[in-house]
Design brief:
This protein has 520 residues and is an alpha+beta fold. The protein contains 11 helices and 18 strands. The strands form 8 sheets. The protein has a 3-stranded antiparallel sheet with strand order 7-8-9, with helices on one face.
Length: 520
């Protein structure tokens, strides 16, 4: 662990100030234990050099929040709603809860594999949407719904049914992912807006098809043949209110539009830190006697830190046998149909590599376009976290191995890979308790050194994850089972090359020593 990382996560103890004249002036907060002694004020982000702003974002991402700076949320749930039972506030010994949260005091506590900003071990799994409970207890003497043991239907929950246990995903390359989703959403909406009554059109962006959208003769919308999008993106209540078709690329089952929304959610749910843009300025939303716990400018800094994280690359050892296997495995991966969903690369054009804040599709509770000036950062800038993607003929190709669609990869109701809760349905609804089997196509870049695998993180090998693909991927699974042992092993060797590279690595493809490697 580097000294830089240690400084990012260990609380700073404010002890005093020395004046220029040599006399000592003690700080008024002598002995205070906080991780972030200085917050940005709104507007500061536009008067700072980008590297300093990102550095502040890294500090916030690695900070161990304490109850002396607003850590914890005594009177609110992780959803932001008031506790069901305000007479039992979330204070010691109820201040942390592994399932209903707060469950960690640092973003880096979970996102750290193989370095800060990455994924997490099984021990860092999040339980979604367990945060709708005050304090999960499983106590059968508790008969109040969503307090600790009863769900919205009045049924006693178990560990396996209270929430979905989700593996922590890495954030490397996420700035490019957000920009791809913005561009693809814009493409789908343009196609939507061109459809007249009685007509239909295929929704295609960047070579990825989302099915066919149609309009009835009365102008109303028919989304029955649209696929790969959340139900919330297909809602329409009349001709004048078309489906949004918004792609929500974050969370393993989708549902989160932007890194900013992800950040606002996580700070409140996991740490009990309320942002001003969601909860209001000078408002103590959670009853902990702290206001303005994290500012709009702070959230911008954390968002930019995540957006500029390096893109994953490839590590290919200088071993002729492994090299040959990797070449074969990559071809077999395509031949049996894996690349139909795990699309090897998607194009960012029209200067889509210029990341901007805020995202124009942000939902309420997150900074909206027009509420402040736009902040822009060039994701190809060499001064950002290395390595980076480059512009080639006015296009940046993003080798993330995803189509940014939702797919059912389970074999049916009895598949243990299904989830008990559909977190994207209204809480307590029939759809909510019907469970979930649709997941965003896993971005395979960086996957090899971010175990464990699958959405639940209960597979210790990539081979197990491959063999769990059923449902929409059943045809590919059958082709996988028909492969020779040598060809299956070659696919695994190919996947093992997809890694998050050591900090400061300049090249996207390197050998086992970190030296640049030429590869087709």
């Amino acid at each position: 662990m580097s000294n830089q990382y240690r400084l990012a996560v260990i609380p700073i103890f404010v002890i005093g100030l020395i004046t220029m004249g040599g006399s000592q002036t003690f700080a008024t907060e002598l002995g205070k234990e906080v991780s972030v002694p200085n917050h940005l004020q709104d507007g500061d982000e536009f008067n700072m050099k980008v590297r300093k702003l990102i550095s502040h974002g890294k500090l916030l991402f690695g900070a161990n929040w304490t109850n002396q700076e607003g850590g914890g949320r005594p009177l609110t749930k992780g959803t932001g709603s008031p506790l069901t039972d305000s007479s039992s506030p979330l204070v010691f010994p109820r201040n942390f809860n592994r399932i209903s949260a707060p469950d960690t005091n640092s973003c880096a506590g979970c996102h750290n594999k193989p370095r800060i900003g990455g994924g997490g071990e099984i021990v860092t799994n999040a339980f979604l949407p367990g945060q709708r409970f005050d304090f999960a207890t499983f106590d059968h003497n508790d008969t109040t719904p969503t307090r600790g043991a009863l769900d919205e239907e009045g049924k006693f929950v178990q560990q396996q049914t209270i929430a979905n246990s989700r593996n922590t995903l890495g954030l490397f390359g996420s700035g490019y992912i957000e920009m791809l989703s913005r561009q693809m959403t814009t493409d789908l909406q343009k196609i939507r807006d061109s459809i007249t009554s009685g007509r239909n059109a295929e929704l295609i962006s960047k070579g990825v098809s989302f099915g066919t959208l149609a309009r009835n003769q009365d102008g109303s919308w028919n989304t029955s043949d649209v696929n790969g999008l959340l139900a919330s993106s297909l809602v329409s209540d009349g001709a004048g209110n078309p489906p949004s078709l918004i792609i929500k690329p974050f969370h393993q089952s989708g549902g989160v539009v932007s890194l900013r929304q992800f950040t606002n959610n996580a700070f409140n749910q996991h740490h009990g830190i309320q942002s001003t843009e969601r909860f209001g300025i000078n408002i103590d939303a959670d009853g902990d006697d702290f206001v303005n716990e994290i500012t709009r400018a702070d959230i911008t800094a954390v968002t930019l830190f995540q957006a500029q994280l390096a893109v994953p690359g490839r590590v290919i050892p200088n071993d002729p046998e492994i090299e040959a296997a990797v070449r074969i495995g990559e071809q077999v991966f395509q031949n049996i149909g894996c690349s139909g969903c795990h699309v090897p690369k998607l194009p960012l054009d029209k200067k889509g590599w210029i990341f901007s804040e805020p995202n124009p599709f942000n939902p309420k509770g997150n900074l909206q376009a027009g509420n402040t000036q736009e902040y822009k950062i060039d994701l190809t800038e060499e001064k950002l976290d290395q390595p980076r993607l480059k512009v080639e003929k006015e296009v940046v190709w993003v080798p993330a191995f995803t189509d940014l669609k939702l797919h059912d990869i389970t074999s049916g109701p009895g598949d243990p890979n299904r989830e008990p809760i559909d977190q994207n349905a209204p809480e307590g609804s029939a759809e909510f308790f019907a469970g979930n089997s649709r997941f965003m196509t896993r971005k395979l870049w960086g996957t090899a050194n971010e175990p464990p695998y699958f959405h639940h993180g209960q597979y210790t090998t990539m081979r197990q994850a491959i063999e769990a693909h059923r449902g929409e991927a059943y045809g590919t699974y059958v082709k996988w089972t028909a492969l020779s042992e040598a060809h299956q092993n070659s696919v695994i060797e190919f996947l093992k090359t997809l890694q998050i590279l050591p900090e400061g690595t300049k090249h996207l493809v390197v050998d086992e020593r970190g030296n640049k490697k030429e590869w087709p």
